[in-house]
Amino acid sequence: MRHCVITSLQWDVCKILAFIVFTVEAFPQTELKLSQAFTDFSQPLSCPLFWTEYNGNCYRFFPMNKTWAEADFYCAEFSLGRTTGKLVSIHSWDENVFVFDLVNSQVSGAPTDIWIGLSDRRQEGEFEWTDGTHHDYNYWDGNQPDDGSNSKPEDEDCVQMWYRYYSAIQIIE
Length: 173
Description:
InterPro entries: C-type_lectin-like (IPR001304), C-type_lectin-like/link_sf (IPR016186), C-type_lectin/snaclec_domain (IPR050111), CTDL_fold (IPR016187). It contains three helices and 13 strands; from the N terminus they run ββββαββββαβαββββ. With about 170 residues, it is an alpha+beta fold.
């Protein structure tokens, strides 16, 4: 499965000055036929050039300005066969640290915040990952989620990872 993460400065509803980190399901080695690529998972997996593998997925950081919705759509452009790129879904502390380190390794100085594939856009208060995986992990900042304390709850649905010394996750507009 492919995933994307976007870094950002808050602008409008789900808008951010974005750096993007994408995760993409690891691609089969080039000697495999395309028809085998998605049916024979016993073959060793490797990522395309400029992508970083972690736990069977490929990740890549792209510095660009995107809203959360634009970033999610952009990730979908990284598709191969039945696999579609998605904003990153984070399921453990180790994966959280991996994404944090990946972004920090490619940005001089402390980067801004990044979009991740978690939102409650379909149902207020019901968070789900864009890749359809179960929402089984979060590392919320102490006062999060707050649904934008100065706005209507339905105005703040997209989730970003804060790049602070503690690397918390926050919901933003």
